[in-house]
Structures are given as structure tokens and as C-alpha cells.
Amino acid sequence: MYKILCPIDFSAGSLNALEFAVKLGEVQQSIITLMYVFTEEEFDQVLDSDSIATVYANKVAIAEGKLADLAMKINEISLPNGLKGCNFTLQFGKRVTNILQYADEEQIDLIVMGMVGITGLTEQYIGGRTQKVIQYASCNVLCIPEDFRFQKIKKIIYATDYQEEDKIAIQQVIALASLLKAEIEVVHISRQDQNIDKAIYLDFIEEMKSFIQYKKLVFKREVYKDVKQGIHKYMHDKDADLLVLLSKTRNYFLSLFSSSLTKDLTFFADYPLLIIKL
């Protein structure tokens, strides 16, 4: 059974991410787990109260009640549409640590989270917590922009740098695209337009075509001096709905980002971003 984990704090951004998770859960016939992490910072907010235990217990009860109501509503609406179930977990600790630990223990297949929507998210969050979830999660991570509302995914862009693992990653993209009846464009951004670059691209296509069987998939090659800008422009030119990148040690995904990951992730904040972990 495919399992989706959706960290939530009831902000608009996290609820947008949840909407995306539910729609994917329906087509993938998945189980969705909502996670709320009650942090030390939230506990510190009640320290000035004369009745710390009561205030703390009330806050926990309110969060648990909201999670229960939301899970119930999702089940009522989405079970008839293919979702296998929605449950919730109320955690205590640090958000990133709890997300990663729960994902590993429960063998989660996909984490869906707001790109700019978890409690108090700012650009600093994008550069910190989201980076850590992407970097250390053992499963795929789908990041949803704060103001992005769910829409039918018609075109998926997979950006490649000719990794051996592309074969596995593209098969995962095809599996998703098949359910969504979406088109796939596998694009490579070259920094220069030389014969050797063209030859490598053609060899890559031949190798991929030997085992890929999906009629709505095409290969493209574009030339831009800056790869991030090239991907960003390509996404907008193609009016694409989802960008997919492969993440492995010292690979294309990591090479896209400088030490200022905050700025770089914000660069891709206009559209959903799926990170495949292999």
C-alpha cells in the first residue's frame, strides 16, 4: 500500500499541500497520514501562564481535535474516489526530526509538504528545514508552493543530467503520469552547444528508448548558461505543472544549488517540485 505523509499546521500553505496529497492519494489509492508536531517553542509560549499544565493540555487537545475532524472529512469525501484512508499522528519534538523518523519507521513512500507553508515558514525555512527533509529523507518529497492550488497535472518535466539512476527515476515518473494521464518531457539543459554535448544527448535518448514504453514521453535538449534559469524558463515556456528532479549524493540535484539554498529553492517556488530519492 502506497503511504503518503503530510506535515500540517493548518496554515494556508500546509492545507494547499494537503489538497495535493489527497488528490494524489485518490489516484494512487494511498493511505494518507496527517502529522502535527507540537514543538518546544509552542510549549515555551505557555510558560508564562499561571496554569501551564492546563493551557498545554488545551493546546494539545485543540490540535488533536482539528486533526481528527480533518481526517474524518477527508475520508468522507475521498474514500469513494479511491483513497484507502486518512489517519493522523500528533507528535512532540522537532519538526524535521519527527518527520524523518516517522517516515522511516512507517516506511512512507512520499512526503508532501508546503514549500512556504509550515509554521512560520520564511525563506530561512526554505533554506533550512525543507533542505534537511529533502536531503535526509529516504523517500520521495513533494514540495508545494504556498499559494499554489491543486490543478490537474497535464505536463510533467523531468530534468536530467544523464545519471544512471535516471532509468529508475523515469519509471517512477511514468507510473505517476500513467495514473494522471499526463505528458512527460525529459529535458537536459546544456551549458554549451558543442558536438560532444549533442552526441552524449543522442546516446542517452537511444539508451532510454530501449526500455521506456510510454507514448506521451518526449526528450528535449536546451542550451542555457545557467542551468537553474534554463529549467525555470523551460517550465514556464511549456506551461508545465510539475518539475521532477533526482536526488542522490553529489548529483545533478545538489549541483543545482549553491550554499544559499534558500534563494535557489525560492527560484523554483512557482510550481510543485517532486524530489525523487534514490
Average of pLDDT: 85
**Termini separation (Å)?**
19 Å
Q: What structural category arises from helix and sheet content?
A: alpha/beta
| Residue windows where pLDDT falls under 50 for at least 5 positions | 117-127
When the domains are counted, the total is 2
Shape call: elongated
Protein architecture, described:
With 278 residues, the protein is of the alpha/beta class. It folds into two domains: 3-144, Rossmann fold (3-Layer(aba) Sandwich); 155-272, Rossmann fold (3-Layer(aba) Sandwich). 46% of the residues lie in helices and 22% in strands. It is built from ten helices and ten strands. It has helices at 12-28, 40-44, 52-78, 95-105, 123-136, 166-180, 195-209, 227-237, 252-256, 261-267; strands spanning 3-7, 31-38, 85-92, 110-114, 140-144, 155-159, 183-190, 217-223, 242-247, 273-277. Helix 1 (12-28) links the parallel strand 1 and strand 2. Helix 4 runs parallel beside helix 5 (123-136) and helix 5 packs across helix 10. The two termini are 19 Å apart. The model is unreliable at 117-127 (pLDDT under 50).
